[in-house]
């Protein structure tokens, strides 16, 4: 796919000045005078334009030497995967990294799993994320650890283990280097949950038709009771026994509760939850691109924020957003212009009751009118 366009630095600054929520998670602002990077909606006083630069990912900010803001907490931004869709290989690589692929292995092994060379993978990461694979993995560990420090009552050793750090010493050294303080100093006592399990909040972009997504999950056989989705964890699939539960929280957030025998599986479980609930979807981009098709435009307007019910185990080579499993020739021809959102377009047609026969008839009618 095409290389994503460079960020418009002045446009990013205007979004920061107005604290425009539409850009939250799409880029991060790096403040040269403080060495901190922030979300566009950070409540802190806006720095001068000459003191700010903007990058597309948290990993790029951290690789450049900036540390996450403790006020706006970049780890809580929605859609940290806003770049997804620009490269199939990068998308698959990030999914593996989110699941902990670089915690016990190296970039060469990751590249082998993806069927590309190590140098090619590094080049793609630079091109699409502005950071190396190891930097992306390090940022993932740090941001997950920060979320665990803020939102759970796990011990420091448990946080280090759950976030994928090889040791408590490495965990402490990383936070000391980034924040000039030990990780325990970032803990907020007022935010503790009172019940069992590890409870975290995951963000997503609005709009989101969560009701339709829950209905789709229930229809395929997942365990859904009311607005609560649950799944048992098993050693052969997840690496340990236990359970994960997901339910709505405040608008734009889901509460995920994980009870696991080994906290090391937490990154993989969270990555799978994000896939099942399609949390990296960009509804604005999807609606904009699909609405170019006159058939889809009214359907998208009528049902904004549709999400794809993802699989817990995903072994596909192509992006879930672009899959057309079992599609007939008429749909495939029509959907060619919907990339990389073909699966969303097909979902809109299905919910509207438009099938392959209808598309065949439309093609025939269009052909006669053209003649």
What does this structure look like?
The structure is a single chain. The protein starts with 8 loop residues before the first helix and ends with a helix. It contains 16 helices and 9 strands. With 371 residues, the chain is α+β, with helices and mostly antiparallel strands. It is globular and about 70 Å long.
CATH topology of the largest domain: Arc Repressor Mutant, subunit A
CATH level 4 superfamily of the largest domain: Homeodomain-like
CATH architecture annotation name of the largest domain: Orthogonal Bundle
Biggest β-sheet strands, sense, barrel:
5 strands, antiparallel
The secondary structure category is: alpha+beta
Strand content: 5-15%
SSE string, helices as H and strands as E: HEEEHEHHHHHHEHEEHEEHHHHHH
Residue runs with pLDDT of under 50 for 5 or more positions: 81-85
Number of DSSP strands?
9
CATH class of the largest domain: Mainly Alpha
Number of domains: 4
Rg to the nearest angstrom? 21 Å
For the terminal residues, how far apart are their CA atoms?
A: 34 Å
State the strand order across the main sheet: 5-9-8-7-6
**Count of alpha and pi helical runs:** 16
Name the shape in a single word. Answer: globular
Q: Which bin fits the share of residues in helices?
A: 40-55%
Residue-averaged pLDDT: 88
């Amino acid at each position: 796919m095409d290389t994503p366009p460079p960020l418009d630095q002045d446009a990013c600054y205007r979004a920061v000045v107005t604290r425009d929520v539409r850009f939250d998670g799409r880029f991060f602002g790096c403040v040269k005078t403080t060495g901190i990077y922030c979300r566009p909606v950070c409540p802190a006083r806006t720095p001068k334009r000459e003191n700010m630069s903007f990058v597309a990912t948290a990993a790029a900010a951290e690789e450049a030497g900036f540390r996450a803001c403790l006020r706006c907490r970049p780890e809580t931004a929605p859609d940290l995967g806003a770049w997804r869709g620009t490269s199939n290989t990068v998308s698959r690589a990030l999914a593996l990294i989110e699941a902990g692929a670089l915690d016990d292995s190296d970039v060469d092994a990751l590249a082998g799993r993806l069927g590309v060379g190590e140098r090619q993978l590094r080049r793609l990461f630079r091109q699409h994320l502005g950071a190396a694979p190891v930097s992306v993995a390090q940022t993932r560990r740090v941001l997950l650890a920060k979320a665990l420090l803020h939102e759970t009552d796990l011990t420091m050793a448990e946080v280090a283990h759950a976030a994928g750090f090889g040791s408590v010493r490495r965990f402490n050294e990383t936070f000391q280097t980034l924040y000039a303080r030990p990780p325990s100093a970032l803990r907020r006592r007022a935010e503790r949950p009172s019940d069992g399990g590890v409870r975290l909040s995951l963000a997503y972009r609005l709009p989101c038709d969560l009701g339709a997504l829950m209905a789709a999950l229930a229809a395929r056989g997942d365990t859904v009771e009311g607005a609560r989705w649950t799944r048992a964890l098993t050693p052969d699939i997840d690496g340990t026994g236990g359970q994960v539960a997901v339910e709505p929280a405040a608008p734009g957030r889901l509460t995920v509760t994980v009870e696991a025998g080994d906290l090391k599986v937490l990154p993989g479980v969270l990555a799978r939850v994000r896939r099942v609930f399609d949390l990296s979807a960009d509804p604005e981009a999807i609606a904009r691109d699909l609405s170019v098709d006159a058939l889809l435009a009214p359907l998208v307007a009528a049902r904004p924020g549709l999400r794809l019910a993802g699989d817990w185990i995903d072994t596909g080579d192509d992006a879930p957003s672009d899959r057309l499993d079992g599609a007939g020739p008429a749909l495939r021809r029509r959907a060619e212009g919907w990339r990389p959102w073909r699966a969303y377009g097909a979902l809109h047609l299905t919910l509207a009751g438009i099938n392959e026969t209808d598309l065949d008839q439309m093609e025939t009618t269009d052909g006669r009118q053209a003649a």
